[in-house]
UniProtKB/TrEMBL annotation:
Keyword presence, Ribonucleoprotein: yes
UniProt source species: Amblyomma americanum (Lone star tick)
Biological process terms in GO annotation: translation
Residue stretches making up the S5 DRBM domain: 10-73
Keyword flag Cytoplasm: no
Listed GO MF terms: RNA binding; structural constituent of ribosome
UniProt keyword terms in alphabetical order: Ribonucleoprotein, Ribosomal protein
Pfam families per the UniProt record, alphabetical: Ribosomal_S5, Ribosomal_S5_C
Superkingdom of origin: Eukaryota
Protein family membership: Belongs to the universal ribosomal protein uS5 family.
Name this protein carries in UniProt: Small ribosomal subunit protein uS5
GO CC, one annotated term: cytosolic small ribosomal subunit
């Protein structure tokens, strides 16, 4: 389905290939873990991770998983709504492991201010301008990429004010029932009670 709709425009990039080892009775068994980002530079991005005995197989598997995890990216404006949307619609956060990535809207022409890993993902998602802030163990590339992916995913989960439904301004109860209140209102008597006098 992804190939049918986005096939020609999708580009993939290998973020990292790292060897992982498992201790067996005969010694260590080395496998390769591949991280692949995929996107069409126009509002769609995906991330795939695959482990395999051979590098080529790992990359192939990661590309398939990345295609299956493609998500739409909502873009917005920093200030005035002039031209096409170019940045994230609001501040969004993604967390994976100890890594916390925050994406902050930026004015047009700023570019993507970030580390190389989120920069690739944001560029593939079609975001032109964005500030980022990251904390935690960002050297762990897998978690760093996943946290950025989750932050990008959050762009569609916020209901921003421009999506609010138009509603009529409701009257307050005092305004609505003002006629009734005028008729029902009785002034409180201020006359003192007179004590009867005995002669």
């Amino acid at each position: 389905i992804i190939d049918h709709f986005l096939g020609s425009s999708l580009k993939d990039e290998v973020l990292k290939i790292m060897p992982v080892q498992k201790q067996t009775r005969a010694g260590q068994r080395t496998r390769f873990k591949a991280f692949v980002a995929i996107g069409d530079f126009n509002g769609h991005v995906g991330l795939g991770v695959k482990c395999s005995k051979e590098v080529a197989t790992a990359i192939r598997g990661a590309i398939i998983l990345a295609k299956l995890s493609v998500i739409p990216v909502r873009r917005g404006y920093w200030g005035n709504k002039i031209g096409k949307p170019h940045t994230v619609p609001c501040k969004v956060t993604g967390k994976c492991g100890s890594v916390l990535v925050r994406l902050i809207p930026a004015p047009r022409g700023t570019g993507i201010v970030s580390a190389p890993v989120p920069k690739k993902l944001l560029h593939m998602a079609g975001i032109e301008d964005c500030y980022t802030s990251a904390r935690g163990s960002t050297a762990t590339l897998g978690n760093f990429a996943k946290a950025t992916y989750l932050a990008i995913q959050q762009t569609y989960s916020y209901l921003t004010p421009d999506l609010w439904k138009e509603r009529e301004l409701q009257k307050s109860p005092y305004q609505e029932f003002t006629d009734y209140l005028m008729h029902a209102h009785r002034p409180v008597g201020t006359a003192r009670s007179v004590e009867p006098t005995t002669h």
